[in-house]
Amino acid sequence: MPELTPQERLDKQKTLRDWLRWQLSQSDEAIRRLERQVEEDRRRRDVARIEMSWKLQPPRADGAQPMLHRGNCGLFKTLTGYLDKDHVVIAFDQFPDLEMCEICAPWGLLGIPKPTPRKPSP
């Protein structure tokens, strides 16, 4: 088998370099696509977790009770402090007269009947 000339070896190396650049660009694109997918999956999990949780709005006045909202209720916005069902039970123990948002209806996700409306204090 005859030995390749320096020019032939140079041409082969350039061809290999070009092919490796193409492979690298393909890998970079695959990485970007997978990173977007991982981020979207994380975002969807966060949204699902928030939708299946609750949040407790502090009382608005002295002597008032906190109000329970579903995690995705827009009436009380918070980025932290989401409660799971066990923590909602604790909140009910601590605040027996806990109010519930009429808009997001947190009782439905809890599997309890709609509370009877409270009569305003005189």
Structure characteristics:
122 residues; mainly alpha; 3 helices; 3 strands; 8% strand; rod-shaped; DUF6233 domain-containing protein
- Tell me the structural class: mainly alpha
Low-confidence stretches: none
Biggest sheet, strands in spatial order? 1-2-3
Query: In percent, how much strand structure appears in the residues?
Result: 5-15%
Number of beta strands:
3
State the order of secondary-structure elements, H for helix, E for strand: HEEHEH
- Average of pLDDT: 90
Radius of gyration: 30 Å
Number of discrete helical segments:
3
- Give the N-to-C terminal Cα separation: 106 Å
Largest sheet: 3 strands, mixed
Shape: rod-shaped
- Helix content, binned percent: 40-55%
Chain-wise SSE layout:
Blueprint: H1 6-51, E1 54-57, E2 67-70, H2 85-94, E3 99-100, H3 106-110
Parallel strand pairs: 2-3
Antiparallel strand pairs: 1-2
Question: Could you characterize what this model shows?
Answer:
By secondary structure, the chain is mainly alpha-helical. It is built from 3 helices and 3 strands, in the order H-E-E-H-E-H. It has a 3-stranded mixed sheet with strand order 1-2-3. Strand 2, helix 2 (85-94) and strand 3 form a beta-alpha-beta unit. The longest helix has 46 residues, at 6-51. The model has no long low-confidence stretch (mean pLDDT 90). It comes from Streptomyces pratisoli. This is DUF6233 domain-containing protein.
